[in-house]
Automatic annotation (TrEMBL):
<dbReference type="GO" id="GO:0016872">
    <property type="term" value="F:intramolecular lyase activity"/>
</dbReference>
<keyword id="KW-0413">Isomerase</keyword>
<dbReference type="Pfam" id="PF18916">
    <property type="entry name" value="Lycopene_cyc"/>
</dbReference>
<feature type="domain" description="Lycopene cyclase">
    <location>
        <begin position="7"/>
        <end position="97"/>
    </location>
</feature>
<keyword id="KW-0125">Carotenoid biosynthesis</keyword>
<dbReference type="GO" id="GO:0016020">
    <property type="term" value="C:membrane"/>
</dbReference>
<feature type="transmembrane region" description="Helical">
    <location>
        <begin position="6"/>
        <end position="25"/>
    </location>
</feature>
<keyword id="KW-1133">Transmembrane helix</keyword>
<dbReference type="GO" id="GO:0016117">
    <property type="term" value="P:carotenoid biosynthetic process"/>
</dbReference>
<feature type="transmembrane region" description="Helical">
    <location>
        <begin position="73"/>
        <end position="96"/>
    </location>
</feature>
<keyword id="KW-0812">Transmembrane</keyword>
<dbReference type="GO" id="GO:0045436">
    <property type="term" value="F:lycopene beta cyclase activity"/>
</dbReference>
<comment type="pathway">
    <text>Carotenoid biosynthesis.</text>
</comment>
<protein>
    <submittedName>
        <fullName>Lycopene cyclase</fullName>
    </submittedName>
</protein>
<feature type="transmembrane region" description="Helical">
    <location>
        <begin position="34"/>
        <end position="53"/>
    </location>
</feature>
<keyword id="KW-0472">Membrane</keyword>
<dbReference type="InterPro" id="IPR017825">
    <property type="entry name" value="Lycopene_cyclase_dom"/>
</dbReference>
Amino acid sequence: MMPWGYTVPAVAAVIVVVVLELAVLKTGLFRKAAYWLTMAIVTGFQIPVDGWLTKLSAPIVLYAPEHITGWRFPWHIPVEDFLFGFALVTAVLLLWERARLGEEAR
């Protein structure tokens, strides 16, 4: 088994999405205030939901300790969840933005 089997893919997902935007898609999404507002809203909903699912007092979702860093913030949320959340939401928004720009070019 790969040590930190959840951490490594989470970090890789963030890197892939950022490189995809900066080197391939070039939509300019990271320069838009609306994107960062969207990410703040997503994070605002992610914290209570993920916090409830991963709380150490009565977790619904369990993580193998050898596959995560063990860093948790706030309410015992593994930091890897925020990385995957960023990558997932950003990837979807990038694809939507790319499709929108493609439609405008037609």
